Amino acid sequence: MYKKYIMSIIFICLSFLFLTSCAGSREESEDVLSEDEKQQKELDDIEALLGISTDKDQPAAKTTKPAANEEKLNLLDTNEIIDNSQSTKSKEPSKEAQTKIILLEEQLRQKERAIDYLNEQLTLKDKELSKRQASPAVTTSVPRAGDVSMEEYQSRYDDARREFESRNYQSAATLFESMLAASSQHSLSDNAQYWIGECHYALRQYDKAIIDFEKVFTFVNSNKQDDAQYKLGLCYIRMGDKTKAREELNTLIQRYPNSEYAPKAEKLLAQN
């Protein structure tokens, strides 16, 4: 009886020890497996970050790399397009440069017109001088000038002046021109020539007026030369050619310092 009791206790103790050892080994295996899984997961994470794969999904991972490279190439192409467009725009002149080019072209055209005008003036002066040298000089003591008497010439001159004062500039110019056509040797011929210029100036035909005033200087001892010189300066001012206007006004002051127009010329020079 006593022996059976002892054997039962020993059996129970052995069973308890066996169960305890099994539980410990199970816990250790579970701990080892969980640690391996953790390490495997960390390795997987590292491989994913580096773009390395050793499992069956490796081809799929490789296919993502060309897409990334292709995206980089697309970005490079886009940058090149942007750079090319910017370089093209930089080659185009700015609005300020275009404005300067237009102004320079306009100044060039004005200079060309001025050269053409000067050439025309030289031609006219040569023709006028040739006519004066070919025709004999007529003294003022002769009672008749050509086919028109002095009285008739004076009457035509007065009629033309009245037309001018009435602002009938075209009619006045026609009358003055008829006087010169009848005779250019009368004492009033230079005055008629001057007033033709005044008619064209009043009509704002400044190109014609300049030619008319230049012709006044072809008359020897004309009393209208300083008037014509002053009007030349005004014509160029009206035409916007300040450089030429200053030249003509300075010429007036130098050649005719006692003229009534000299102070006016100095005032205009101070303003321009």
Brief overview:
Helices cover 79% and strands 1% of the residues. By secondary structure, it is mostly helical.
Q: What sequence of helices (H) and strands (E) makes up the elements? A: HHHEEHHHHHHH
How many β-strand stretches? Answer: 2
- Give the mean pLDDT: 75
User: Helicity, in percent?
Assistant: over 70%
The second-level CATH architecture of the domain at 149-271 is Alpha Horseshoe
Strand order of the largest sheet: 1-2
Would you give the CATH topology of the domain at 149-271? Serine Threonine Protein Phosphatase 5, Tetratricopeptide repeat
Give the CATH class of the domain at 149-271.
Answer: Mainly Alpha
Query: What structural class do you assign from the helix and strand content?
Result: mainly alpha
Termini Cα gap: 149 Å
SS summary, helix count: 10
Which spans of ≥5 residues are poorly predicted at pLDDT below 50? 22-32, 56-65, 136-145
Name of the CATH homologous superfamily of the domain at 149-271: Tetratricopeptide repeat domain
The gross shape turns out to be: rod-shaped
- Percent of sequence in beta strands: under 5%
Rg for CA atoms? 56 Å
Instruction: Sketch the major β-sheet.
Output: 2 strands, antiparallel
